[in-house]
Design a protein that fits this description.
two-stranded antiparallel sheet, RNA-binding, single chain, magnesium, 4 domains, binds adenosine-5'-triphosphate, EC 2.7.7.72, binds magnesium ion
Length: about 475
């Protein structure tokens, strides 16, 4: 098959590196992910090159280069502002830790190099002449939208257990099926995931959840049973994950990666505190952890508000105040996030802290990888509240009062301020006006003023706030 790399600054720069290697009598090709993505018409974010030149020859040939992994044959060559990993053709052997080869041998046949690669779609290379070298039918599998191991799947996953997650990642991101033998091999080797570092598991899982088809990825993860077998704590079974996934077909509609994680942890029944601990154990950065936990705190505050809401005509106003209190406690961004999440996945409103219920039927492991249908009818995109029956209306049923996310959003939009920093009075001013030394009372007073001003009881005005503070109730 003949084909040309789409013109781009990066392809041109990589082409110059290949041309230099060819001029010195060596072979060199574009290889792996860049060919796969080019053939699929997907954007190419980096280009790897493979060559018959030995690493020291590559080092000698290019003035600007970095010895990234000489023992494994990799040199990073800098060209026209781009950097390219140039790796010598190699084979590998002895994967004692189910991740890294113990021995690497440089070889002279590019097909040998392609054989060590994980999937057929990643084992294609292409020269400057546009001729594809594709000994394992990668281009055919790309057309068939299939992930297939190069060689025996069971063996390949045993050598490097990370490949199992890469398999699910590629199937999910590309929305490809997984070849039967490859899936069978994965199921047989899934216990080996225990050998893979938490960071690697996290990074692949992130790419699945944050990619274009996270629901498909969740279905495959659930069916594979991989995550409960990894080093990273995962206190659920594949069935629990399938139950959570079943109510999340809309997860891919969330643009924010953090909201996707919040939604998943919510569906798995995690509290804000336990979600934070879990994300820490999974080595997520602190900023992600706290943003996700804050969204779950909004959920908790709102659940508590609903659980203890008074009945009768004042119910809605009481809820408005509690919602405002939740926004003040967790921040507008987290509150906004929680509402966005509910709007994208209305079913999330019916998940309780225990997590989603298992679906009625479990389909066996297979290659289709879709989660089962939702186990119950989606709830309306609103939050039910039991209305108290008024004294004179003994026959009235406890009709649920629905507070749709749009109402919560408009309550939030109506808040004149949402943080202490915006309050038109300072602690210092209050302390002076009340002639009292600062103490814990001051923080409490500031909070009361903030809540009153945010709820619209008093204007956010310096004089009026001071006046309010002087009233008996605020002393
Ligand atoms: P992406 O960069 O989008 O993750 P990629 O295919 O380029 O996709 P890399 O991790 O950059 O993935 O690896 C480059 C190439 O190296 C792959 O295309 C594949 O040929 C090979 N490769 C990477 N990881 C493995 C592995 N664990 N086992 C075997 N081959 C691998
Ligand atoms: Mg790559």
């Amino acid at each position: 098959m003949e084909w040309t790399m789409a013109p781009s600054g990066m392809a041109e720069a990589a082409g110059k590196v290949i041309a230099s290697l060819l001029q010195s009598g060596r072979e060199a090709y574009y290889v792996g992910g860049c060919i796969r993505d080019e053939l699929l018409g997907r954007p190419v974010h980096d280009m790897d090159l493979t060559t018959s030149a030995l690493p020291e020859e590559v080092m000698a040939m290019f003035t600007r280069c970095i010895p990234t992994g000489l023992a494994h044959g990799t040199v990073t060559v800098l060209q026209d502002g781009y950097s390219f990993e140039v790796t010598t053709y190699r084979t590998e052997s002895g994967y004692a830790d189910h991740r890294r080869p113990e021995h690497v041998f440089f070889v002279s046949d590019v097909k040998e190099d392609l054989r060590r690669r994980d999937f057929t779609i990643n084992a294609i290379c292409c020269g400057l002449d546009g001729v594809l070298v594709d000994p394992f039918g990668g281009a055919r599998d790309l057309s068939a939208r299939l992930i297939r191991c190069v060689g025996q799947a069971e063996e390949r996953f045993d050598e490097d257990a990370l490949r199992m997650l890469r398999c699910i990642r590629f199937a999910s991101v590309l929305d490809f099926a997984i070849a039967k033998n490859t899936w069978r091999g994965l199921l047989r080797q899934r216990d080996k995931l225990a050998h893979i570092a938490v960071e690697r598991v996290r990074s692949e899982t992130e790419r699945i959840i944050e990619g274009p088809h996270p629901w498909r990825g969740l279905g495959l993860l659930a069916r594979s049973g991989l995550l409960p077998r990894g080093k990273a704590p995962f206190p659920w079974t594949g069935t629990d994950l399938a139950a959570a996934a079943a109510i999340l077909p809309g997860i891919g509609e969330l643009q924010s990666a953090r909201l996707r994680w919040a939604l998943l942890l919510h569906a798995l029944g995690q509290s804000a505190v336990s979600a934070d601990e879990l994300l820490r154990a999974w080595t997520f950065p602190g900023a992600t952890r706290s943003a996700v936990a804050r969204v779950l705190r909004v959920r908790e505050a709102w659940d508590a508000a609903l659980a203890s809401a008074p009945g009768g005509s004042g119910a809605e106003e009481a809820l408005r105040r509690r919602w405002i209190a939740a926004v003040l406690a967790c921040g507008t961004e987290a509150a906004e996030g929680w509402l966005t999440l509910l709007e994208a996945v209305p079913q999330a409103a019916c998940v309780t802290l225990g997590g989603a219920q298992p679906p009625g039927s479990q389909s066996g492991a297979g290659t289709a990888g879709e989660p089962a249908m939702p186990f119950r009818q989606p709830a309306p995109a609103s939050i039910p509240l039991r209305q108290n029956i008024s004294a004179g209306d003994a026959h009235a049923s406890a009709a649920p009062l629905h507070i749709p996310p749009s109402r919560l959003r408009s309550w939030m939009a109506g808040m004149p301020l949402s943080s202490l920093a915006e309050l038109a009075v300072t602690g210092k001013e209050l302390s002076a006006a009340l002639d009292k030394r600062p103490g814990p009372w001051l923080g409490e007073l500031l909070q009361r003023l903030l809540h009153s001003a945010a709820a619209g009881d008093i204007p956010n005005d310096n004089q009026l706030l001071l006046q309010e503070a002087k009233k008996d109730g605020f002393k």
